[in-house]
């Protein structure tokens, strides 16, 4: 038999991944493969020993290592679900943990870069895998550093292997504190008594995907208020009140939001969200990665119950290590119960010791780097905001500054607060977006917060198969996201000025990429300038494929990435109040990833 596998950093995470795959393939009870290890995703206790049939899906430890493998049959559907778990939850084995495991298994690998012929060209890895492998000292040092910046006790800081794993841990925490012991005996298939989640504002894609997975949410699903504006806020309040009247309580475990959001850099009304969290008794989970906890303070004022941060980004800066943090706030109504539960249940060792050491070392000049990035980014943003060739600049200073500024912290000695280093650009119609991107002389990549400036065509990378969906929420297909690094501000302004000039020249020759109406235009010879036009052509094919599929396929088509209703009539209101364009109810029966289907979906036709 051929097997597939996914590697996990702990036994508990391996059990969660195994149950996720089984639930995705066989339903909430997993009976098609002998049952589940735990009765709920948020609970790590081993509730049952699956029957012998479950040997098709099992967890094993690599002998003598801290790496666990989830084994499953080498079938496409199982592999896709394993990938979905790894991608959405961020629970993974880092390269340092993997290297250490290979050494422990007797498979040594080199830790050198260069050709080895010249000592000056050969360099040891700055943060090797054998540094503090147990990790206790490094994790303590990392927690202490975060606590100093956030002005909390180190005991309130919890570490995770990635930023997404931090959000996952916060979501599981919020569900766990809502579960009652009697829920364990409820009939299978009944909606989880922990309640559903709410995502407010357009977030990083995997946050929304994760909150919509029934395998994680126990069938409760997610309500998505994608614009995050005042109208969405009123709709959210109306929905919570309606559910309270119908059910006796709002049945919401958590509201997840970003401050500011990625990629539109919007600041939401956090005080209003805090009031709703107190009134309807749910956990307010805030991802502050883009703003970072040196710039914005959502803890001391009692706004966030739980603060999640990807330490991989600016806190680390070098881009050579991954980590995440969860800070539980003791200044909110739910804070004490959340902190006690987290202390009892969190697995700290899922962040490998050498990774913790790397991030702790890299973060020693975090405040200095954050100050420089704030200053440089604002200079660049001012330049772009006043440029005639820029149709829209998304940056907190120009989106909702009044909502952002009220949480700017000014109590960190040696730090100059600001709006962070992230911004997004949409060029005016007639400019050639692909020429701009190709000419922009900065590093290209999908991350952010590195010490060097990064750019990427965010919408196309993150939402390639759902451009209609993102457009509905104001996320332009041609949006280019920029993460400002430590380069001199004048140098960056010159780089962008050159790219804008080249883009304008190409646009005047007729190579403008995708027009605002979604149609195609001529593409220049050469790969780069053809880029956006190819996307438009593929979107036209997707539209034709959907039209040809007809209503006969409607009941069986498995739409990848987004729910079917969100891709069908985007003008149609899918959740409650009529005319609310920013709210979507993601029913758990609609899968968020391709799991196979009778007949090809429109996107499969293109593959």
Keywords for this entry:
single chain; 607 residues; alpha/beta; five-stranded mixed sheet; 20 helices; 37% helix; globular; disordered C terminus
Brief rundown of the structure:
The chain is of the alpha/beta class and 607 residues long. It has helices spanning 11-26, 76-89, 95-104, 136-150, 163-176, 205-212, 214-217, 230-247, 270-280, 335-345, 353-362, 366-385, 401-405, 433-439, 458-462, 467-472, 489-508, 527-549, 564-567, 602-606; strands spanning 3-8, 58-61, 68-73, 112-113, 123-124, 157-160, 196-200, 222-225, 252-258, 283-287, 306-310, 324-328, 390-394, 422-427, 443-444, 454-456, 480-483, 583-586. An eight-stranded mixed β-sheet has the order 6-12-11-10-9-7-8-18, sandwiched between helices.
What does it look like?
By secondary structure, this protein is an alpha/beta fold. The protein is built from 20 helices and 18 strands. The chain has an 8-stranded mixed beta sheet with strand order 6-12-11-10-9-7-8-18, sandwiched between helices. Strand 9, helix 9 and strand 10 form a beta-alpha-beta unit. Helix 1 packs across helix 2. The longest helix has 23 residues.
Radius of gyration: 24 Å
Q: Note the beta-strand portion.
A: 5-15%
Mean pLDDT: 82
- Can you count the beta strands? 18
Please count the helical segments.
20
Topology:
Layout (H helix, E strand, L loop, with lengths): L2 E6 L2 H16 L31 E4 L6 E6 L2 H14 L5 H10 L7 E2 L9 E2 L11 H15 L6 E4 L2 H14 L19 E5 L4 H8 L1 H4 L4 E4 L4 H18 L4 E7 L11 H11 L2 E5 L18 E5 L13 E5 L6 H11 L7 H10 L3 H20 L4 E5 L6 H5 L16 E6 L5 H7 L3 E2 L9 E3 L1 H5 L4 H6 L7 E4 L5 H20 L18 H23 L14 H4 L15 E4 L15 H5 L1
Parallel strand pairs: 7-8, 7-9, 9-10, 10-11, 15-16
Antiparallel strand pairs: 1-3, 2-3, 4-5, 6-12, 8-18, 11-12, 13-14, 14-17, 16-17
Helix pairs in contact: 1-2, 2-6, 4-11, 5-6, 8-9, 12-17, 14-17, 14-18
């Amino acid at each position: 038999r051929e097997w597939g596998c996914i590697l996990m950093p702990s036994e508990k995470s391996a059990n969660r991944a195994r149950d996720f795959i089984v639930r995705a393939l066989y339903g909430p009870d997993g009976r098609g493969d002998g049952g589940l290890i735990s009765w709920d995703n948020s609970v790590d206790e081993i509730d049952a020993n699956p029957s012998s049939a479950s040997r098709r899906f099992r967890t094993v430890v690599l002998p003598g290592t801290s790496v666990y493998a989830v084994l499953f049959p080498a079938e496409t559907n199982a592999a896709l679900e394993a990938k979905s778990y790894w991608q959405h939850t961020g629970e993974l084995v880092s390269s340092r943990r993997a290297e250490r495991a290979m050494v422990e298994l007797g498979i040594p690998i080199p830790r050198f870069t260069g050709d080895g012929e010249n000592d000056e060209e050969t360099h040891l890895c700055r943060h090797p895998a054998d540094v503090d492998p147990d990790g206790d000292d490094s994790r303590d040092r990392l927690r202490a550093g975060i606590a100093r910046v956030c002005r909390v006790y180190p005991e309130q800081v919890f570490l995770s292997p990635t930023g997404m794993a931090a959000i996952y841990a916060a979501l599981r925490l919020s569900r766990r504190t809502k579960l009652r012991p009697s829920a364990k005996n409820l009939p299978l298939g009944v909606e989880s008594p922990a309640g559903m989640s709410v995502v407010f504002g357009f977030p990083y894609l995997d946050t929304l995907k994760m909150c919509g997975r029934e395998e994680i949410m126990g069938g409760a699903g997610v309500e998505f208020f994608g614009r995050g504006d005042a109208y969405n806020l009123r709709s959210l309040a109306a929905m919570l009140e309606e559910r309270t009247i119908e059910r006796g309580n709002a049945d919401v475990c958590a509201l997840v939001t970003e401050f500011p959001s990625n990629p539109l850099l919007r600041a939401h009304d956090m005080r209003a969200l805090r009031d709703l969290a107190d009134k309807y008794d749910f956990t307010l989970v805030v991802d502050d990665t883009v703003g970072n906890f040196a710039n914005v303070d959502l803890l001391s004022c009692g706004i966030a119950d739980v603060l999640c941060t990807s330490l991989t980004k600016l806190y680390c800066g070098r881009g050579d290590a991954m980590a995440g943090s969860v800070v539980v706030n003791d200044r909110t109504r739910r804070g004490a119960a959340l902190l006690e539960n987290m202390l009892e249940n969190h697995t700290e060792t899922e962040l490998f010791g050498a990774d913790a050491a790397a991030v702790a070392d890299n973060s020693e000049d975090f405040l200095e780097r954050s100050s420089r990035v704030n200053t440089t980014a604002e200079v660049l943003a001012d330049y772009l905001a006043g440029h005639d060739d820029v149709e829209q600049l998304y940056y907190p200073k120009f989106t909702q500054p009044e909502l952002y500024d009220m949480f700017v912290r000014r109590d960190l000695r040696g730090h100059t607060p600001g709006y962070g280093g992230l911004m997004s650009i949409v060029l005016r119609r007639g400019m050639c977006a692909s020429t701009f991107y190709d000419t922009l002389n900065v590093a290209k990549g999908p991350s952010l917060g590195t010490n060097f400036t990064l750019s990427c065509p965010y919408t196309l990378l993150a939402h390639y198969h759902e451009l209609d969906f993102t457009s509905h929420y104001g996320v332009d297909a041609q949006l280019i996201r920029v993460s400002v690094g430590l380069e001199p501000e004048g140098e960056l302004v010159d780089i962008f000025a050159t790219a804008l000039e080249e883009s304008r020249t190409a646009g005047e020759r007729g190579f403008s990429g995708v027009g605002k109406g979604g149609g195609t235009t001529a593409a220049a010879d050469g790969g780069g300038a053809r880029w956006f036009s190819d996307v438009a052509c593929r979107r036209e094919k997707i539209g034709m494929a959907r039209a040809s599929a007809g209503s006969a396929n409607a009941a069986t088509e498995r739409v990848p990435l987004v729910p079917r209703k969100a891709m069908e009539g985007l003008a149609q209101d899918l959740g409650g109040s009529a005319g609310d364009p920013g709210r979507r109810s993601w029913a758990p029966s609609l899968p968020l990833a391709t799991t196979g289907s009778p007949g090809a979906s429109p996107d499969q036709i293109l593959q």
